[in-house]
Amino acid sequence: MSVVIILGASQDCHALHMLQACHKAGVEAALFDTSQYPSCHGISWNPVLAQGGLRLNSTLYRFEQIHSVFWSSVGPPGLEDTTNPSLYQIAMSDSSSALRTFFDESSIHWINSWQVFDSHKVKPRQLHKAATIGAKIPQTYIGNESEDLLAFAKQFKKLLFKPVYGGAHATLVDKNQLSLLHLQKVLKYAPVTIQEYIQGTNIRTYVIGSHVYSAEIVSDEVDFRMQSNPVHIPTPTPPQIAILAKRLTKSFNMHWTAIDWRRDHRGNYYFLEANPSPMFIHFEQLTGYPITEMLIQSLTQSSHLCDVG
């Protein structure tokens, strides 16, 4: 028996979509909601034999039976309400360590791995790595030194503010936000990402193994995610951008990703981010691209290595 595990909460629409797609394709699959571990699910590990198992409710899957894992979302362990408060942090740390033991299983084909997600949290380094691979990136300042930020800002007429870690929309920088007194106050709380604004349009490129799919996302908003229904226009991926997208995917150790670009009026593509667990259902519906089908193929392939070129 070989099984595909879908990592995601019971309310995660993308996890449920992939679970249903696996079943429709005749692939045995099960949902692992980490917020229900260890209260409902179990993990076991023998370090001498290097053997382990994952129990989802009453069904046990030995690690060697798990062919692949699709990582949609992972929440913190969910401890019983009766957990002794004085032992709560120990229980949480122990549960997280056991989860990591499962996440570290190298015999499983991870789409994508926890190492990829951990690396994605450090977006400043991802930007630099993309640049070393050959991608154009917008001029960017990251930090909380007010004078350095002001020196950078003086070079550009239009700037974007972004969180360093992510989790919030990009917004235009107002000139009032660039006063020294204001910056000295707010930068004590957190660093920021300030980036030159690239005039142009949004392009999203999905890479799944050797397959590349792109669409223009038309929006009047600075961040297209702020618009309820932006127009998606399937667009051919220029050959050199398709090659670059696959190189980026491979360099980031991803088996699939969605790359956000800004395409200027001259046709130059500027790399913004590569997401290891992008939303795709709405994109697939609007473009007709076979994202789900390609993901199922990747999850069920015999080799654990995607051909990303």
From TrEMBL:
Residues 127-300 form the ATP-grasp domain. It comes from the Bacteria. It holds the Pfam family RimK. The keyword Secreted does not apply. GO terms for cellular component: cytoplasm. Keywords: ATP-binding, Manganese, Nucleotide-binding. SUPFAM superfamilies: Glutathione synthetase ATP-binding domain-like. GO terms for biological process: SOS response. GO terms for molecular function: ATP binding; metal ion binding; ribosomal S6-glutamic acid ligase activity. This is ATP-grasp domain-containing protein. The lineage of its organism: Bacteria, Pseudomonadati, Pseudomonadota, Gammaproteobacteria, Alteromonadales.
